[in-house]
Amino acid sequence: MTRPEQDSAGRPRAPVIQRLLGDPRVAQARLGKRIGRLPYFTRVESATAPITRMEGRDILNFGSNNYLGLANDPRVIAAAQEASARWGAGVTGSRLLNGNLTLHEELEEALRRFYGRTGAMVFSTGYGANLGLMSSLLGRDDRAWVDEEMHASVLDGVWLARANMKRFGHNDPEHLLAQAKGDTASGLCVVEGVYSMRGDRAPLRRFLEVCRETRLALVVDEAHGLGTVGARGLGTVEEDGVVQDADFITITFSKSLGSCGGAIIGDKAQIEALRVLTRPFLFTAANTPASVAAALASLRILHEDPGLVAQLKERVRSLREALVERGLRPIPSDGPIVSVEVGADFDTLQAWRLLWNRGIYANPVIHPAVPAGHGLLRLSVMRTHEEQMVRTVADACADVFSDLQLSHQGRGKVAS
């Protein structure tokens, strides 16, 4: 048997490699593979739809971010195919040197107009958009005031800038005010319009007031708000009336737009400055033609038919009502993410497994993505889900809570 400090060829492992393989998270993943319990990297064998082929089975899919169902819309697929035929499979480099297609500029113009702002900047991923914005805006002496449930892309961008990160309580603008008032350092505040795990929304109007009082720039990540919140689907910035007031809005194309990529939206002068300063934009390959064309087609569909957002909201309302009727208490929100608190990590993973056994795919959220003892079952609603599917998943969740003897008030029976 190969000793832990050697690789399969018998060469001694460098200390950094030993540390990599000894990380507790790696051990956890190995254990999950052995017992078949950790539900990550599930093999998907068809397009992401309400019924998706996974690991050799047709599964009722409530774990996808394809909120508007546009990832497999024929019009979006056709746009991607046509772009590949015209522009090729890839751009072979960064936009700075050899990958700036008119297609990229067309998408930026469409995004700018959609949000009614004067500038937009497209990135290869939504992660890259946040990473680039944070690392370009902030310096070593700056403060980054960040919600305690903020996405990793923002945290990593702050780390890259070597800025001083300050955390405030989740969706708590008063906590931000208490900490930031009187602080003379320059900085910014970052919140998400719709939070990716719990699905709740930020009170953006109050956060804007606090930022004005403390002279902080306001950045709103609408990754899960685009296409799901607001009459036209602009996100929580639209619902709370701050589209023109937020200093920057970041989005991703991988949810409602059914593609891959991301963007920063804001005022033209700031966007043009970012265009020549942002390293994650300058030194990585540009989006593929197919992904840009798909995002552009989806954006046009959303712009021309905002009724898609209303249809999604009706499905969300239906699922929430069905869960409540069965005695469950989803976390309050009207966004596309419907989360129910389970409790202990073990119970959360057990609940996921029981749903999977019944042919239903959901997302289990455990520590450290949420505080210990507050594991969630996360259900993502698609506009294309049928009413019977909603009732089926609500029945299954109620049965799982009963089988595991979990509290229907949204807490598990065991504390982590």
TrEMBL record:
GO MF term (any one): pyridoxal phosphate binding
Cofactor(s) the protein requires to work: pyridoxal 5'-phosphate
Pfam family, one: Aminotran_1_2
Domain of life: Bacteria
Gene3D superfamilies registered for this protein in UniProt: Aspartate Aminotransferase, domain 1 (3.90.1150.10), Type I PLP-dependent aspartate aminotransferase-like (Major domain) (3.40.640.10)
Key words, A-Z: Aminotransferase, Pyridoxal phosphate, Transferase
Domain Aminotransferase class I/classII large: 58-395
Iron-sulfur as UniProt keyword: no
Keyword Transferase: yes
Similarity-based family: Belongs to the class-II pyridoxal-phosphate-dependent aminotransferase family.
Name of the featured protein: Aminotransferase class I/II-fold pyridoxal phosphate-dependent enzyme
